[in-house]
């Protein structure tokens, strides 16, 4: 899930060419690029470079940068511009830990309570796949994957749980765009998703929770592997010593 729809005008509000609308479009474009890691984690950018890259007016780029800074996706760097929020091991650990807590409860509550509509929707998105080098196919896969997990949460019958999980998945989207391009996990994920559907339909809460935990562990390992392979992690101080891979 992404925030690309944030700032869309309502009928009769801002005209398409008005400054407010331009800043919304600028926000959408830059946010999109950050989430998809087209603007790489840890990359330094400027308002001028963003304006040139996305064909924006400087005022629109500045307004978008201000919003993204408030969100924590950009951080001002004195005399250099802005730093795209790095992806840290703390980010990965915190988000996966929180997701495991929420989804473990969700799958247990959903087991035995999935109806025909839930099963039909799960079966439809279960077949989604992606091409590792194709950002658009990855984005489509992530949309389907998000729907898969939110349908399960909705079967648990707790709307607040659905909303919390949606926010967690939204925050994790950049992690997935960072890790998924490195290898094709389509077959593995299809098999796991089908096994989850079978367990939920059978009312087998223990198996559903086990499948979920195993899936999260593999997903986390994928992201950590991608993170540890980046230049930013080649020189890391541990106990005062530089570790070089």
UniProtKB/TrEMBL annotation:
One of its GO terms (molecular function) is DNA binding. Keywords: DNA-binding, Transcription, Transcription regulation. It holds the Pfam family FCD. Residues 20-87 form the HTH gntR-type domain. Gene3D superfamilies: GntR ligand-binding domain-like, Winged helix-like DNA-binding domain superfamily/Winged helix DNA-binding domain. The keyword DNA-binding applies. Residues 1-23 are annotated as: Disordered. PANTHER family: GNTR FAMILY REGULATORY PROTEIN (PTHR43537:SF45), TRANSCRIPTIONAL REGULATOR, GNTR FAMILY (PTHR43537). This is GntR family transcriptional regulator. It comes from Microbaculum marinum.
């Amino acid at each position: 899930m992404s925030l690309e729809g944030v700032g869309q005008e309502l009928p009769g509000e801002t005209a398409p060419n008005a400054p407010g609308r331009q800043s919304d479009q600028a926000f959408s474009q830059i946010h999109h690029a950050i989430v998809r890691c087209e603007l790489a984690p840890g990359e330094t950018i400027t308002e001028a470079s963003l304006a040139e890259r996305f064909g924006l007016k400087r005022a629109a780029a500045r307004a978008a940068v201000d919003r993204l800074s408030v969100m924590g996706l950009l951080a001002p760097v004195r005399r250099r511009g802005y730093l795209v929020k790095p992806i840290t091991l703390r980010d990965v650990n915190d988000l996966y830990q929180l997701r495991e807590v929420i989804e473990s409860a969700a799958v247990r509550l959903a087991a035995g309570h999935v109806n025909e509509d839930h099963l039909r929707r799960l079966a439809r998105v279960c077949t989604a796949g992606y091409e590792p080098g194709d950002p658009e196919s990855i984005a489509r896969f992530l949309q389907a994957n998000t729907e898969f997990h939110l349908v399960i949460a909705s079967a648990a019958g707790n709307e607040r749980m659905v909303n919390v999980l949606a926010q967690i998945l939204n925050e994790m989207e950049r992690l997935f765009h960072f890790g998924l391009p490195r290898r094709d996990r389509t077959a593995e994920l299809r098999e796991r998703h089908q096994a989850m559907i079978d367990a939920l339909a059978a009312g087998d809460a223990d198996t559903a929770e086990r499948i979920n935990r195993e899936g999260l562990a593999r997903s986390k390992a994928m992201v950590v592997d991608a993170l540890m392979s980046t230049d930013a992690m080649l020189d890391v101080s541990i106990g005062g010593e530089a570790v070089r891979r």
